[in-house]
Amino acid sequence: MEEAHKKELIAAIQIQLQKVTELCGADDVPPEIKVHEIRKSFKRQSALLKLFPAELQSEVDKFRKPLRIIARRLTLGRESTVNLQLLDRLVAETGGLDESSNAILKAKLIQTNDESLDELIAKEKVLDDILRLMSDGQETLLPLSISTDYFVFVFDELRATFQKSKDWYRLIASGYDAELYHNLRKQMKTLWYQSELEAPGQTEVPGTVLEKLHYITDQLGDDHDWYIFIKEISREMYALSIDDIRKMKQLVRDTQDLNLLSLHQNLADFFSLSGEEYIELLRRL
């Protein structure tokens, strides 16, 4: 099984390296989609790289550290795109502010989004940096991972990741803190990416533990997105009045509260499992 996991891990990373390389060179993919898909791939790669044994981690870090640095550079571009989407959603569901204020705010968010993406792609040439890193992964990391003799103990890492997730879950029990919820999401996202190595394709199957895990990470993601949205539109550059900011905060809070009602129950159900019970459910998929 450990030998099979080694081959699966190498193949999974190779797929992600190739995916990102193709995205960088795809002329028909809009920049906001490129940024989103590349960030997702980077998160998956980072989670998978943790599955390599301790004796390889010093070499793995030579790839993972610049991966994380570039991922952070992409954050503002992605957040500015999401903020636009959230405004459209809020206006559609609640009306938002008055029609004129909604239009002015949207125009400013569009400007922020355009400038963020232009800064990344046209000025910083981030795609060139990404291509160089993916090439390094293909030429250095993959050959090393193939030629070195080692075992991949996926279930040991899954137990550890599950327990870290559960520890973060216990931390949020005392009250709402957006950053703690975000940290929980990052840990559970890592658990999901790693679990897919053992049970590929099961996220799309209704009722599986992976489908439930993925849904929870989406709910946690929604919560953090709204948190970032309010922080952004409260900045002076958007010139909203105090009353408008207060109204938007309440609309967002109402939306978050509905999400949290369902999220808290889903988290309680998920973490009623022990680590061993979770792994057993994975094995059955």
UniProtKB/TrEMBL annotation:
SMART domains: CHAD. It holds the Pfam family CHAD. Residues 9-264 form the CHAD domain. It comes from the Bacteria. This is CHAD domain-containing protein. It comes from Maribellus luteus.
